[in-house]
Design goal:
The complex is a heterodimer of chains A (292) and B (470).
Chain A: E1 2-11, E2 14-20, H1 22-27, E3 33-37, E4 45-48, E5 51-53, E6 58-64, H2 68-74, E7 81-82, E8 84-89, E9 100-106, H3 110-122, E10 126-133, H4 142-147, E11 151-156, H5 167-176, E12 183-187, H6 190-200, E13 207-210, E14 226-229, E15 232-235, H7 236-239, E16 242-244, H8 250-257, H9 261-270, H10 275-283
Chain B: H1 19-22, H2 35-42, H3 53-56, H4 63-71, H5 75-85, H6 89-95, H7 102-105, H8 117-130, E1 148-152, H9 156-167, E2 171-175, H10 184-187, H11 196-208, E3 212-214, H12 225-230, E4 235-238, E5 243-245, H13 261-270, E6 288-292, H14 296-307, E7 312-316, H15 328-337, E8 340-342, E9 345-352, E10 358-371, E11 377-381, E12 387-390, E13 393-396, E14 400-402, H16 405-409, E15 435-437, H17 440-443, H18 448-467
Parallel strand pairs in B: 1-2, 1-4, 2-3, 4-15, 6-7, 6-13, 7-8
Antiparallel strand pairs in B: 5-14, 9-10, 10-11, 10-12
Helix pairs in contact in B: 4-5, 5-8, 6-8, 9-18, 13-14, 14-15
The chains are: A alpha/beta (292), B alpha/beta (470).
Chain lengths: 292, 470
């Protein structure tokens, strides 16, 4: 059991949690993720690590409230416990001295980018960061991103923060205007990572994206998280989670992510105090006793 | 001893749920012997002078002795004899391939009337579960010697090794990557073949011996093997299982609703997707399901699909019945339940719809040529035999490759070219000092009982090595 020591609603759909997991905190590196299971009936799902502190033995995660599992997680308060957290999983980011590194993020992607940018800077890289948000109201932690970056840019969908509405637009212009960029990292929504990869491709700038497809065990055992990279099937949990964005089959990734949309909706609708009664009504089966 | 002229060669059949009934529920298929049936079967044993059964058992259970105790009405004695060699009889009685082990070497087998040793073993284990107070603990009174041993993985190899070492007085910590202990017994083998309450009972027994189980610990990630050694574990037994599933290497294998058998079974058994939406993990089955491969895992996956509501479930196998690796009993169970066997058939491509979901599979027929390196006859494509069947779900059940996490994070561990750990079969020793290995990680995919045998041999060797030191 992992006690939540801090919780914050950052913007209306994004939550920050700090939870106890001393063994994972001791081993975590940038780019890695954990698998969580909120309660006894919960599913296993991956979240990127947004931070860790060996001294307090805690982990930080940022997540978007999407379906039943993230809603369940969001409904926990400080002092409550997450049933299972396992990790740190996946291969850590390769932190080398690349030169000029551009870190792009949207929403929850800011989580993994913070420790990543810090580590890249620690290795002597110059870090330019760009954060994308739907509108001004969905921006958060701009100060924290600035603190780990040499230059920080903001792209807001309603145009309220200057001319760039998307991170990819900024990247295109930045590269077009002759700035030298040696490597790009993109973390966040799939669509945003895809756009960033497409923006850098004509310039031949290697672009690393951090993927979190649907997973079950997260240790290479089931193959649920397979993605196609350069025509080869890869398991995100053990071969990734970072891949070359120019080689990822984005269409396949999106389709596989959407595979359970119907079940997500069904699960979400049924996640109510009277769930069990409604299940009984829907299925015509005898009402089950609560499983928790 | 029984008079040879009165040999009874009629095995007492085990009662089962009817195929129509069981194909729609997850309850256990075989219901187990009644007391009367168990005694009747036990009484068929002629208690021969040179029993073959014991040698056929990978852990050398004293089979004639436990059957004799049954005949004498000494059930606690039967339990003791059985558990002396086998910590997990409730599991082995259900999933061991007895027909190729103890029952094959039973002296009555030559006459076609081998004793149903597996069923008797199951009966004794179930009797103990129902009468927990009746059996004096065989392991009582062992003093903990304080020496720490790490067991990686809590499947059959890990559970056996941990139990044996705990009985010898070691302080054993077992590390499990998933959120429940039991490994393949929990995530892989379905409820209807091996009820999870029985596995939990065996895990609880191992815990009661003083073994500490640390769940959600991925060795190689949460801590490495070298860190375990540095932390004061004097020996490490690696039994993490096989791990990575193989796919077909044909177009369309990454469409939605193509599940590896591992994923399909994990969602169903471990995550209880059959209880969705009360449990959060979904599974998509649809009306028509194709399972590729014909081993025990393929049988399990196909029978799960049926129970999850599929109307037509195909086993697609490129060879014939003769080469089929599944146990006969499981094949017959599957056939009775209505699984459709498409033999001498191989897939070319899985076809998807616009949403990227499985819609159909293109197949061709094969004929068998000369034996290949595996000794089985090689399937050859029959020209012009291509055809298509519409399906909603595809499940490759083609076996597994070793999981890369431990090999890639452990220095000095020699591997075979297949990625398994080079292991001395008799002792479980690896190329790395103080590290032993057993189960699928050492042998590639094999049986529960062979993994248990490896766990036992490693425990004996670890004890022999440590006794001589410190």
């Amino acid at each position: 059991m992992h006690r939540i020591v801090k919780k914050e609603l950052l913007v209306p759909n994004t939550i920050y949690l700090r939870a106890e997991a001393p063994e994972i905190a001791r081993k975590a590196r940038p780019g890695q993720f954990v698998i969580l299971r909120v309660d006894e009936v919960g599913e296993r799902f991956p979240l990127s690590l947004a931070g860790w502190d060996e001294n307090t033995g805690t982990l930080e995660i940022l997540f978007l409230i999407m379906g039943r599992s993230t809603t369940k997680l969001a409904s926990l308060n400080e002092g409550d416990c997450i049933m299972d957290i396992v990790g740190p999983l996946g291969e850590p980011t390769q932190i080398d001295k690349y030169g000029n590194v551009l870190c792009a993020c949207s929403t929850f992607g800011l989580g993994p980018v913070l420790p990543l940018a810090q580590a890249l800077r620690g290795k002597g890289n110059r870090v330019i960061s760009v954060m994308e948000a739907r509108d001004e109201g969905f921006l958060f932690w701009e100060d924290r991103l600035r603190a780990v970056s040499d230059e920080t840019y903001i792209a807001v969908g309603d145009g309220s923060r200057g001319k760039h509405k998307r991170a990819s637009e900024f990247i295109t212009e930045h590269l077009n205007s002759g700035h030298k960029v040696d490597r790009v990292f993109a973390y966040g929504r799939v669509f945003m990572m895809m756009e960033c990869s497409r923006a850098t491709e004509p310039f031949g700038v290697k672009t690393i994206v951090g993927l979190t497809p649907v997973m079950v065990d997260g240790t290479g055992m089931c193959g649920c998280c397979r993605v196609s990279v350069g025509g080869e099937t890869q398991f995100t949990c053990v071969d990734g989670p970072e891949f070359d964005g120019h080689l990822v089959d984005w269409e396949l990734l999106v389709k596989r992510k959407r595979a359970y949309l119907r079940e997500e909706a069904q699960a979400f609708d049924l996640w109510q105090p009277d769930t069990l009664r409604r299940v009984a009504e829907l299925t015509g089966l005898p009402e089950r006793k609560p499983v928790v | 001893m029984a008079d040879k002229t009165k040999l009874d060669l009629d095995r007492v059949p085990i009662p089962k749920q009817s195929p129509e009934e069981r194909a729609r529920n997850f309850s256990e298929v075989a219901l187990g012997y009644s007391e009367e049936q168990a005694l009747q079967e036990a009484n068929r044993c002629i208690d021969c002078k040179k029993p073959g059964c014991r040698d056929g058992c990978p852990v050398n259970v004293d089979i004639p002795e436990f059957i004799r105790a049954m005949k004498e009405g000494d059930m606690p004695g039967a339990v003791r004899i059985l558990k002396n060699k086998n910590s997990l009889p409730g599991i082995c009685g259900r999933v061991c391939p007895q027909e190729t082990q103890c029952e094959l070497t039973c002296n009555l087998a030559k006459k076609g009337g081998e004793i149903a040793i597996g069923r008797l073993e199951r009966y004794v284990a179930d009797w103990e579960r129902a009468h927990p107070e009746a059996v004096e603990r065989v392991d009582g009174g062992v003093r903990c010697n304080g020496r720490r041993i790490a067991v990686v993985g809590s499947g059959p190899a890990g559970l056996t090794c941990a139990a044996d070492l705990a009985k010898l007085g070691y302080r054993v910590t077992m590390f499990e990557a998933l959120h429940v202990a039991g490994g393949v017994l929990m995530y892989g083998i379905p409820e209807f073949r091996l009820p999870k309450a029985i596995v939990q009972g065996e895990v609880d027994y191992v815990k009661s011996l003083g073994v500490e189980i640390r769940l959600n610990h991925v060795i190689g990630k949460t801590a490495t093997v070298d860190e375990l050694l540095e932390q004061g574990f004097e020996a490490v037994f690696l039994a993490p299982g096989a791990g990575a599933p193989m796919f077909l290497n044909i177009p369309g294998e990454n469409l939605s609703c193509v599940y590896s058998a591992n994923e399909f079974l994990t969602r169903t058994n471990l995550m209880k997707a059959y209880l969705f939406p009360e449990y959060d993990t979904p599974i998509q089955v649809g009306k028509r399901v194709a399972v590729f491969g014909a081993g025990n895992v393929a049988m399990d996956a196909s029978r799960c699909a049926l129970r999850l509501g599929a109307e037509e479930v195909y086993i697609i196998y490129r060879r014939s019945l003769t080469e089929m690796p599944a146990r006969l009993e499981e094949r017959e169970n599957a056939e009775e339940e209505g699984i459709i066997f498409k033999l001498l058939t191989n897939p070319v491509r899985i076809v998807g719809d616009e949403q990227g979901r499985v819609r159909a599979v293109e197949l061709y027929e094969t004929e068998l040529g000369e034996p290949d390196e595996s000794g089985r006859r090689r399937p050859i494509r029959k020209p012009g035999s291509e055809f298509t069947i519409e399906i909603d779900t595809a499940i490759p059940a083609l076996g597994t490759r070793p999981n890369p996490i431990i090999p890639s994070t452990t220095g000095g561990l020699e591997l075979t070219r297949w990625g398994t750990v080079v292991t001395d079969e008799a002792t479980g020793r690896t190329s790395k000092e103080r590290v032993w290995c057993g189960g699928d990680m050492a042998t590639g995919a094999a049986t529960v009982i062979s993994a248990m045998g490896a766990g036992r041999r490693a425990a004996i060797d670890i004890h022999a090595c440590l006794r001589g030191s410190g």
